[in-house]
Amino acid sequence: MFIIRRFKMEDLPRVMQLVEAVFRERYDVPMYTNLFQSWPDGFQVVESDGRVVAFILGMVSAPRRARVLLLGVDPPWWNQGLGTQLMWNFMRAAAALPADVVSLELRMSNQRALAFYYRLGFTVTGMIPSYYKDGESANVMERPLR
Ligand SMILES: CC(C)(COP(=O)(O)OP(=O)(O)OC[C@H]1O[C@@H](n2cnc3c(N)ncnc32)[C@H](O)[C@@H]1OP(=O)(O)O)[C@@H](O)C(=O)NCCC(=O)NCCS
Question: 6: which residues sit within 8 A by CB, 6+ positions away?
Answer without folding.
Answer: 40, 41, 43, 44, 45
